[in-house]
Known about the structure:
By secondary structure, the protein is mainly beta. The chain has helices at about 35-45, 70-80, 90-100, 165-180, 185-195, 205-210, 215-220, 230-235; strands at about 5-10, 25-30, 55-60, 85-90, 125-135, 135-145, 220-225, 230, 240-250, 255, 265-280, 285-295, 305, 315-330, 335, 340-350, 360-365, 370-375, 380, 385-395, 400-405, 415-420, 450, 450-460, 465-485, 495-500, 505-515. Among the domains are: about 5-145, no CATH class; about 275-290 and about 305-355 and about 395-515, no CATH class. Helix content is about 15%, strand content about 40%. It is globular.
Amino acid sequence: MPGSDARFYFVGGCNNGNGGGDDQAVLLGEHRQDPSDHIHAAFNVSEDIEGGLNNVIIDGQNLSGLTAGEIQFAKDAYLAGYIVIIYDVTEAQIEELLQLIDHPSKFDEGAVMSSLDDADSGEFYEVLTLERIGGVNWSSIAHIGNLEEAESVTGGFEPGTGLPDEEIRYQFHALHMKQWINQQKSRAQELVDDGLVLGADATAVINRFGLTERPDETSQTVTRSDQSGSVLDITTADIQTNYVYTGFTSNGTIGVSTSSADEVNTYQFTSKAWIVTADTPNGIFSFLFINEDYTLASSNGFLKNKEGSAAFSNAQQYWYLSNLTSVNTLAVGSTTLDNSEVTLLDNKPDTNQASTVSVTTSIDTSVSGTVGVDQDGANASVSGGVSWGTSETYEKANVSINNKSLSETTTGTDASWEYEPAAAEPGGQKAACNNLGLRGLADLSHETFTPSQAFVYRISPDYVGETIKLKTKISFQMRNTYSSGCNIFGCSCGKTDQNSSANGPWTFTHAIAVPEPPEGPSGDATCSDGIDNDNDGNTDSADNQC
């Protein structure tokens, strides 16, 4: 046990796949509140236990106080495949943690382009998790989504309660930690199904990189600086799953702490990133391929026809999703890269009207030349280039999609979309009316909507070997609509829309390591130019790729 501040809590229910039995939560360093308050509440345990290495929990505000032994403990846990969790953490502290545990996307100490500017702490996150599953790095960021003050609906309903005290915030952190730990096995199985972990059926990766007709290259053995493996072993994904939680009370209040809420909406999106660096006919460039899959679960906060309304049939509908925007950019430090540094090569889906029932997000991009791929600091090269393809179809009945790429930032490099479910329109408020109640609201505004986005960036050689940030800014508008201003007959009414301010934006930072340039394969000019092209310490014939 590294230091007297490390405490072990039996949490049960799963293990990290590396053997062993039930999980334990290991608390490192000081915590501003007795951790038993929230660990016990979330994991339903009552006593400390003794045990070995397991999932690690750190208070972000006390990260700088960790001892050398505790830092080594966290690093060993991460490298062994256990989950490292840190809560109440700034973007600057995340950079520090990545450096401390030797994460592949670490920010090199002292490198200006890989760190935030002085005195800039960046975004604040409620919970961050980091883990390795095989060769895949999978992280997660969560936002609670609280307001400064809870909002209640208008139009006939009683107001709700205000925000709870801070202790409930800590309990929320622990509840999210429990959820992430309990889902570890399912994440590992997903990677096996997708062919993204060593020894798995790699059909999905073969198809994605357009290597179906090139069996020699898909199975070729590539010797890296520390081990051997196939090309597909090296071109693994870097994955991040992000969450926004919004809480509701039974009387219609939105924005309360999710721990005290009667209902919680969870908005989740996962970005899967693949990145290569290629010696193309036009020079050395890096290519970043991104899939973003959303699960927007809006049903729990939705109410209508609530008893006690001053109006009649279906006169009020709330809280439903009226708008969601997603803006993606690339950054180093606190600076967004402009169009002289990155180029958005492709982005899907296109603009699509609400009348279309489904849409397909499909991209097929080719990279010519010798391609360098990198995993955990080990480089390899593939001649002949690769292509990357993806295609996903999803339902979107009565939801408009607006592709707003290249228009949402001053740098002109953003991959951006807006989703707008059809709004509720007013009808009459008497039983004899033919157009009774609010009508036309898109079902997906208060059910589960699962859109998908894909885009490809070409990145300047200035950032080869560095860590780059995919910054995704999410905003969503929750709306309360109620009938108002009916005429004397009651069959012609207007409506009033009340938009919640619990709409973000929330920015999520996905740190991705850019591979070094390729050196090799044998016979390539890079094997006789006297340069250590891939910066692995071996030049020309001394490099395993040559």
